[in-house]
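Working notes for the structural subgroup meeting. M.R. asked for a predicted model of this chain before we commit to crystallization trials. I am recording the input and output together here so anyone reviewing the notebook later can reproduce the run.

Input as submitted:
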Amino acid sequence: MDTTRGIPNVKDYSDKKREALPPLKDIRERCLNQLKQMRPDYKRRLNPTPYKVSVSGKLYDFIHFLWLNEAPVGELQ
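Returned structure, recorded in token form:
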């Protein structure tokens, strides 16, 4: 399965050639620049504004499945 679409594999055993990653310093710099561009209400620690994203139905179902399996089971009395 292509790891850029759908649900990524846990381990990819393909022989595809991978492109080299940029240096960690460049990745960190880009991340910090992207965070600077975000609205402050998304980043505040107290009562942040929800950041909405759209995901495919397949990814939503997979995440929901994981969430249901990991959610604690309440004890009935």
